[in-house]
Amino acid sequence: MTMTRKPQQQGSAESSETLRWFAGVPIGTNPLILMDLGMVLAILWAGSFVFLIFLQLLFGKTLNRIQISAAVGFASFLALFIIGAFLVISFLIFQNRYVALFRFDSEGVFCESIRKGPGSFRESMHWRPFPIEPVLNAAKSVTRMVPWGRIHTLEPAAGLQVIFLKGTKKTLMRIYCPDQNTFEQALAFGRARLFDRFSGEGNSSASIDDEGADKFD
């Protein structure tokens, strides 16, 4: 079982139900990470090109084709260097995956990103989250927690088995689910929490976003 539930305690004013699961998260073949990388590369390329042109105009006062070509070449080299570093880190160091532990409880959403030890490349060649054995003693990990009070909407991407936790202005966290059953249970849990929160605040506005559900199908 990738998910565990703790039943509501007797006399508790709030449900202590908890959802908890591990998921293998691809890196170099992850569409979301690749889109992020593409945006970073575009900004980096454009920024370095404009900066070099600005320096040339500031100190050289003139601009010719050779100088423009040099700026293009440097910006392209920098982008290729970033791509190469990404490939080395993704496939050689991390073997194209890391382990994510997620927990939904009454306080909010907890995530622990764990580096997995050496293994077979075959088990990690996926493009979306996949089932993986639990990591009980993590040597290196990064933890993060988002309280329900900061979450404004849930945006599901069923085709990727990912749920985006949205704040008022940005995505707060990506929830990776290893299978469809986990995806549906996590989505239902989050919807129930947000419904209780918005109902308690007397806010009748929709807090669940279904428009993105089939965005990546």
UniProtKB/TrEMBL annotation:
Record keywords: Membrane, Transmembrane, Transmembrane helix
Keyword Transmembrane part of the UniProt annotation: yes
Entry's transmembrane regions: 37-59, 71-94
Name this protein carries in UniProt: Uncharacterized protein
